[in-house]
Task: inverse folding
């Protein structure tokens, strides 16, 4: 597996106004943290080559593999809207039946799920299906965009544990985009804080949580951990 995806320059602009101007290394498991409007989603879309046509992009990246749909898996925010509601789950995979069964087992789902429509499954089950579909190819990079936002607390914790387990078992790079530091503290080794399209702090996750340097980072941590558990 490649050690990293090294984004040497990522600039996104509209009418000469820069929306994002960063460099970023995705090593093992990396979290990109910031509030709404900070540039997280634009960064993800640029990697996925899904930026709107009205935006200008400069993207200089070094990687041991090509950044394309075969090598990148994507887990969106809401599993309810990421699957076709009128299509049975088995028709939403693009792989062999044998592979489908392997993937379901990998994410902890039983085979009966394949014959269900999305509306017949819970949010947690649907997100497991989405994860399984994302792993249909032998991906090298998994992008996660607030993957537990639409889930209840119990389902959220189950999905986070699953992501943590899969990242280690499959040995793939992860970029976990969220505003919720609590969701990545046990998953991501590295953390990157973004504000107004610029990276203001980065480092080992636990080190940043224990000793944040920037005021914005401190505010994010304080809003997440009211008891200041990482300051002790």
Result:
């Amino acid at each position: 597996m490649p050690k990293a995806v090294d984004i040497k320059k990522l600039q996104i602009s509209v009418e000469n106004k820069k929306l994002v101007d960063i460099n970023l290394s995705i090593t093992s498991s990396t979290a990109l943290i910031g509030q709404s409007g900070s540039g997280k989603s634009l960064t993800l879309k640029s990697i996925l080559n899904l930026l709107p046509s009205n935006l200008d992009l400069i993207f200089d990246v070094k990687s041991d593999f090509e950044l394309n749909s075969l090598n990148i898996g994507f887990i969106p925010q809401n599993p309810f809207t990421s699957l076709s509601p009128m299509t049975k789950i088995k028709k939403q995979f693009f792989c062999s039946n044998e592979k489908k069964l392997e993937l379901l087992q990998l994410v902890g789902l039983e085979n009966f799920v394949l014959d269900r429509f999305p509306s017949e499954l819970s949010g947690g089950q649907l997100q497991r299906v989405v994860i399984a579909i994302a792993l249909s190819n032998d991906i090298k990079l998994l992008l996660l965009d607030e993957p537990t936002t639409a889930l209840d607390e119990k389902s959220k914790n189950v999905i986070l544990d699953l992501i943590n387990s899969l990242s280690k078992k499959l040995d793939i790079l992860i970029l976990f985009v969220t505003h919720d530091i609590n969701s990545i503290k046990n998953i991501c080794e590295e953390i990157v804080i973004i504000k107004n399209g610029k990276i203001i702090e980065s480092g080992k996750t636990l080190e940043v949580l224990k000793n944040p340097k920037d005021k914005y980072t401190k505010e994010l941590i304080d809003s997440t951990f009211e008891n200041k558990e990482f300051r002790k």
Summary: The two ends are 36 Å apart (CA to CA). The longest strand covers residues 4-14. The helical segments are 40-47, 97-106, 123-134, 153-170, 205-210, 215-224.
